[in-house]
Each structure stands twice: as C-alpha cells, then as structure tokens.
Amino acid sequence: MILKQLTVFVENKAGYLAEITELLAENSVDLKALSIADTKDFGILRLIVNDPDYALAVLNKKGVLGKITEVVGIQLENRTGALDKALSVLAKNGVNVEYLYAFLAGTPNFAHVVIKATDNALAEKILKDAGFKSIN
After folding, report:
1. What is the model's pLDDT at position 136?
2. How far apart are CA 54 and CA 59, in angstroms?
3. What is the pLDDT of residue 64?
4. CB-based contacts of 37: which residues, under 8 Å, 6+ apart?
C-alpha cells in the first residue's frame, strides 16, 4: 500500500529534534515509525504518523520545513531472509530502492518495512503480485 510519509528537515543542533517531537506530541500526532539520517548541517527525519497532512501543517506553522512523500509499506514475517525476498523481487524487476526502514509490528511475528522506490506504484504492484501483504 502506498503510504504518506512525513519528511522533515532537522537542524543539526542540540535539542532541535526534541522540539519537533514535542510539537507533534502536543498536537496529538501519533508516531508509528521513524528514521533519521544526518549530514553535517541537517538531518532528514522520516515519519509515519497517524495524520501526515495535519502533522505537516502543525510543523509548517512553527516554521519547520517538511513535505509529504509517498512510500510503500509492506508486512514481512519476522524471520531470516524475509527482507531479502522482498528486495530480490524488486531487483529482478528493475525497481531501485532509494531507502527503507523497518519496525516491529504489534506482534513479534511480523515486521513492517517502509520502502521508497524510484517507482512506488510499480514496486507496490510487484510486491503484491509476489504475495507480500501491504500495511496501512
């Protein structure tokens, strides 16, 4: 399933990330998953939240830069090789993965993976056709 991911540009200074999470918490934005990557000057915070459009509006109102990005969410069995199978099917079909991150679902039996592909719609179709379950 195509998911809306909130992508936020985070200044690389002490406390700024906490300001963002505090602002989201104060506005009842529920964080479902996140990933952060950094550079010398800023970080890129990627979030799956309960209401990405509302969360972006809250952040923009306080001058925090962000955008909505579409990603693909799939469920994997929490076992060795499950991620490899998903990535292999994408690779065999010529779909490039730009980045991904994973998190455990509400059960230890499954993990959820968020994938940003060069062609999300194609990635979603390929994964679905290969028997992978979508997350929402």
Report:
1. 76
2. 9
3. 94
4. 43, 44, 99
8 and 59 Cβ atoms separated by less than 8 Å: yes
DSSP string, the chain: -EEEEEEEEEESSTTHHHHHHHHHHHTTPPEEEEEEEE-SSEEEEEEEES-HHHHHHHHHHTT--EEEEEEEEEEEESSTTHHHHHHHHHHHTTPPEEEEEEEE-SSTTEEEEEEEESSHHHHHHHHHHTTPEE--
Angle, in degrees to the nearest 10, between helices 16-26 and 52-61: 120
Measured distance CA(18)–CA(35) in Å, rounded: 14
The one-letter code for the residue type at 62 is: K
pLDDT reported for residue 11: 87
- Say how far apart CA 72 and CA 4 lie, in whole Å: 9
Average model confidence (pLDDT) across the chain: 94
Residue ranges and CATH numbers for the domains of the chain are: 2-67 (3.30.2130.10), 71-134 (3.30.2130.10)
Segment among 56-60, 92-96, 132-136 with least mean pLDDT: 132-136
